[in-house]
Design brief:
Helix content is 18%, strand content 34%. It is α/β, with parallel strands linked by helices and 121 residues long. The termini are far apart.
């Protein structure tokens, strides 16, 4: 059997307020909203990169490390100190800093999803 054409459409984060979480990641990444309604918001990044936010009123974030993380975003950065200050100023919460591991730091976004700031190789 020949593989049919299947491509990646979006990475989607469930959350209780798609507009607010899209605003957070839009500010973090410098991406623009290309679609928005009460239930669904899409951010457009470079090329075909897109991140979507879907209304999930009963969303409960994972309790890490007890429940594991399931899925998280790794965001590439050049400057750990400046990037950490930036995301904290936007409402992120530091979970594990670079003192724990020098190449990345772990954060929670305002809805409770985990993401990492990872220094460029």
């Amino acid at each position: 059997m020949t593989r049919p054409a299947i491509g990646m459409e979006y990475t989607v984060l469930d959350c209780p307020d798609p507009g607010a979480l899209a605003a957070f990641y839009g500010a973090v990444l410098g991406w623009e909203v290309t679609r928005s309604d009460d239930h669904w918001v899409v951010l457009q990044g470079p090329a075909a990169l897109r991140l979507a936010f879907q209304l999930a009123p009963d969303f409960v974030p994972a309790d890490w490390p007890a429940q594991g993380v399931r899925v998280h975003l790794d965001l590439r950065i050049d400057d750990m100190d400046a990037s950490t200050r930036w995301v904290l100023g936007l409402g992120a919460e530091l979970v594990e800093g670079p003192a724990d591991h020098p190449d990345f730091a772990v954060f929670r976004d305002p809805a409770g999803h985990y993401f990492c700031l990872c220094l460029n190789d």
